Amino acid sequence: MSVEQPVIFVVDDDASAREGIEDLLQSVGLRVMTFKSPQEFLEGARPDAPGCIVLDVRLPGTSGLEFQKMLIDAGIHLPVIFVTGHGDIPMSVMAMKSGAIEFLTKPFREQSLLDAINAGIEKDRQRRDGLKLVMELQQRFQRLTPREREVFALIVTGRPNKQVAAELGLSEMTVKVHRSQVTKKMRATSIVELARIADRLGLSVDK
Question: H/E/C letters for each residue in 178-195?
Answer without folding.
Answer: HHHHHHHHCCCCCHHHHH
